[in-house]
Design brief:
The protein has about 350 residues and is mainly α. The chain has 17 helices and no strands. It has a domain of about 240 residues: MetI-like (MetI-like fold, Orthogonal Bundle). The chain is about 75% helix and about 0% strand. The radius of gyration is 29 Å and the shape is globular.
């Protein structure tokens, strides 16, 4: 049989192959179908078929090659503006490293005490106690270093969002033309899915913590811009007229009238920016951003529900603590019950004790 058909497969080989196939399917009943489906799914969008144009199905072929245009444009930008993006990356990298080193250099118990005192000063004794409890839980479950990394990422992102967003919102409040130009840009930034930001950021900045801060800034900056604009525009006209009647110039009007009255609204924007930054932590971990988000991503990839739960609980605890702190920053003297910030909290307690002595 072999001499008449040199290409034939021996019967034993065929039976062995069949048996091995059956054994493989028995050991992994989902393997073959899943791999085939995954391969066809991943390659489905790249199949080019030439079909004649028909009015019955006019969109069978691509009419506008937007994908090719975007790829060409991004390649041109990367090739010609690499020094510009490196210049943008430098201050973010320096700030992130400084904040990260500062947070990780402090002993854990001292950091817990400092955050508790800060929360007590900003939001009251009850929030301070729960902050200490929450940070102690983060350390007890083995997520302290990741929590400090996430906290440094979020703090750096919020700082740059405030530096960019508050002046932009002031400019929009002073110019209706600037507001009309920025409004569709902000709408686009807020409606674009978060995953879409990852591809251009990786192309322009690479991967790591610094690109993660960049994508978080882009994703989280619109609320502080919008609410700064809204807060300044909602300042009562009679107060502005009173300031003008006393001879206030534009600088005095901004810093002594408009910004103090708009501060609750501006801090609401900072609060929303902070929450968006924390929500971006898990998504940004897909481009090698460390911290609690990477714990969640690894837990999902390994089907390790315990690891993912630890990372998720850590993000929730940080979100609650930072949310309560930033909410209190937007309160005025009437809501706080005191005229000055140093009359409450640990600072107020120290001042009272020194006066008694």
């Amino acid at each position: 049989m072999t001499a008449s058909n040199p290409w034939a497969t021996p019967e034993s080989t065929e039976s062995d192959t069949a048996n091995s196939t059956v054994d493989t399917q028995a050991s992994d009943p989902w393997g073959g179908a899943a791999d085939a489906d995954a391969g066809s799914f991943m390659s489905a969008g790249n199949m080019d078929t030439d079909t004649p144009f028909s009015l019955a199905d006019p969109f069978a072929d691509t009419l506008i090659p937007l994908q090719d245009w975007v790829e060409t444009f991004v390649s041109w930008v990367v090739g010609n503006f690499r020094p510009f993006f490196s210049l943008i990356k430098a201050p973010i990298d320096a700030t992130l490293q400084a904040v990260d080193v500062a947070f990780n250099a402090v002993p854990p118990l001292m950091m817990v005490a400092l955050l508790g005192l800060l929360a007590w000063q900003l939001s009251g004794r009850k929030v301070g106690i729960w902050t200490v409890v929450g940070m102690f839980v983060l350390g007890a479950v083995g997520a302290w270093e990741e929590s400090m990394t996430t906290l440094s990422l979020v703090v750096t992102s919020v700082l740059f969002c405030m530096v960019i967003g508050i002046p932009t919102g002031i400019g929009m409040a002073r110019s209706d033309r600037a507001a009309r130009i920025m409004r569709p840009v902000l709408d686009t930034m807020q409606t674009t899915p978060a995953f879409v930001y990852l591809v251009p950021v990786v192309m322009l900045f690479g991967i790591g913590n610094v690109p993660g801060v960049v994508v978080t800034i882009i994703f989280a900056v619109p609320p502080v811009i919008r609410l700064t604009n809204l807060g300044i525009r909602q300042v009562p006209e009679d107060l502005i007229e009173a300031a003008n009647s006393f001879g206030a110039d534009s600088k005095q009007m901004l810093f002594k009238v408009q910004l103090p009255l708009a501060m609750p609204t501006i801090m609401a924007g900072v609060n929303q920016t902070l929450m968006l930054g924390l929500s971006m932590v898990v998504i940004a971990s897909m481009i090698s951003v460390g911290g609690l988000g990477l714990m969640v991503l690894r837990g999902i990839g390994r089907l390790d529900i315990g690891l993912a739960t630890v990372g998720g609980i850590g993000i929730v605890i940080l979100a609650i603590i930072l949310d309560r702190m930033t909410q209190s920053l937007g309160q005025d003297a009437r809501e706080r019950g005191t005229r000055h910030w140093y009359q409450t909290g640990p600072v107020g307690l120290i001042l009272k004790l020194t006066k008694k002595q």
